[in-house]
Design a protein that fits this description.
Elements (H helix, E strand, L loop, with lengths): L4 H13 L1 H13 L6 H27 L8 E5 L2 E6 L15 H23 L6 H24 L7 H5 L11 H19 L20 H27 L6 H27 L4 H16 L7 H24 L9 H19 L14 H30 L6 H6 L1 H6 L18
Antiparallel strand pairs: 1-2
Helix pairs in contact: 1-4, 1-8, 2-3, 2-4, 2-8, 3-4, 3-5, 4-5, 4-7, 4-8, 5-7, 5-13, 7-12, 7-13, 8-9, 8-10, 9-10, 9-11, 10-11, 10-12, 11-12, 12-13
């Protein structure tokens, strides 16, 4: 893979801002949980980021590779080579740390896999042990994420669907709706299944009870930070993996903002119509769902398409959260499954519906592109989800992932960290007031 020096310099600047997206998600997850678990969730975000970066350093990049690398692990089907796995050395050996394409990809992906690892924390909040979180993050960063990322961004078989099978431009995911968001969201689904709902979430007759988050300000501030980080993430990914010119980042920024804003507004309208007043937490979930859904097509869709992608995500998310909770008994305090898995998958499908590519810029869509996108979605649901569930199910046999009942009752701040997130405030009665 060759990246012009101007493009590489611009991507370098964008990569520096990607951590804002991680910080934003960490704040959202924390604000949507109860106060007695707030410090635990922020601590968990730091720990899984560190573990994910380490696992990607050891294994992940070696298995993901860079598009254009020699393909040592290929399978010949129908007389055509299909690339299944990269073959770079472990521990980032062989990477030239001089701004080369491989160095930029390794650095950016270390941040992206950390972002993906933070996503499941929202779904498993208040009942997932810290040590188990770190072990699960290692599995994601060392196995599932690099495999799918190689297939999409590393020149793997999904990216080859266009060349080898004539399906449009192959599977396209410019900003990571599938590679980052859907992989993280499906991991969240697997963990919610394995851990089960929080104590007290369901009554004896199976009806869910409302457990509101403790700090809406943290949630909404996290949305703003996530937006800033997403602008950088989508821009850097489009430059490094889709080969777009830096000037196209203006379109990327516009599409990202329109998708997030229109999705949040739609969620606010939906909750206003259903509950009489707009719901802040669901509106925030709509905002992030718009970011997740708008990422895949951010560099290839016109702004008008972003104004369609976002509202559909904002419409689906509140109903998805409700139905997962009410009908499937899936307890997801942060809405991570609906926001990242469902929002990300919708974003992948939207590429086939609204994508404008250089070879067909005069018309929406591209011949057979939608088929390539559906194959990618089927791979996420038929391979990534079962693999993620299976690995974490095995991990649960050796390292129990759920906190003990006493820990949940007391709050994981005190039980696992020994201190709460907030100091106690002294309250004074009237006798202390000056008259």
């Amino acid at each position: 893979m060759t990246v012009p020096s101007q493009n590489a310099s611009f991507a370098l600047v964008m990569i520096l801002l990607i951590p804002l997206a991680i910080v934003g998600l960490a704040l959202i997850n924390t604000g949507l949980a109860r106060s007695r678990n707030a410090a635990h969730l922020m601590m968990s975000s730091l720990c899984v980021m560190a573990v994910a970066a380490a696992a990607y350093f050891i294994f992940g990049f070696a298995w993901q590779g860079v598009a254009g690398d020699p393909a040592p692990h290929t399978v010949s089907i129908g007389g055509k080579p299909w690339n299944w796995l990269a073959g770079r050395p472990l521990f980032l050996r062989g990477v030239e740390w001089n701004g080369s394409p491989a160095s930029l990809v390794a650095w950016m992906q270390m941040l992206c896999v950390a972002l993906a690892a933070v996503i499941p924390l929202g779904a498993a909040a208040e009942r997932w042990r810290l040590g188990a979180m770190c072990a699960s993050a290692a599995l994601l960063a060392g196995v599932t994420y690099p495999l799918f990322a190689h297939w999409v961004w590393g020149g793997g078989w999904l990216a080859q669907l266009g060349v080898n099978y004539g399906l449009g431009h192959g599977f396209v995911d410019a900003g990571g709706s599938g590679v980052i968001q859907a992989v993280g969201g499906l991991t969240a689904l697997a963990m919610a299944w394995i851990l089960g709902p929080r104590r007290g979430k369901y009554t004896t007759d199976g009806m869910p009870t409302a457990i509101p988050g403790h700090n809406a300000v943290l949630v909404l501030f996290g949305c703003l930070l996530a937006w800033a980080g997403w602008l950088a993430l989508n821009s850097a990914a489009a430059i490094l993996f889709s080969g777009v010119a830096p000037g196209r980042t203006v379109l990327i920024a516009v599409n990202t903002t329109l998708a997030a804003g229109s999705s949040a507004l739609m969620s606010a309208v939906v909750t206003r119509l259903r509950f009489g007043k707009p719901d802040a937490s669901l509106t925030a979930n709509g905002w992030v769902a718009g970011l997740a859904a708008g990422s895949a097509a951010c560099a290839f869709a016109p702004p008008a398409a972003a104004m369609l992608i976002g509202p559909i995500a904002g419409l689906v998310v509140p109903f998805a959260i409700e139905n997962l909770e009410l009908r499937l008994s899936i307890d997801d305090p942060g809405g991570a499954i609906s926001v990242h898995a469902i929002g990300g998958i919708w974003g992948l499908i939207a590429v086939g519906l609204f994508g404008r590519f250089p070879a067909g810029a005069d018309a929406l869509g591209d011949a057979n592109q939608w088929v390539a996108q559906l194959i990618g979605v089927a791979t996420l649901l038929g391979w990534v989800l079962p693999l993620t569930y299976g690995l974490n199910w095995l991990l649960n046999r050796f390292l129990p992932q759920r906190a003990v009942p006493e820990g949940e009752r007391q709050g994981l701040d005190l039980y696992e960290l020994g201190a709460g997130a907030y100091p106690e405030f002294m309250t004074h009665t009237d006798e202390f007031l000056q008259r």
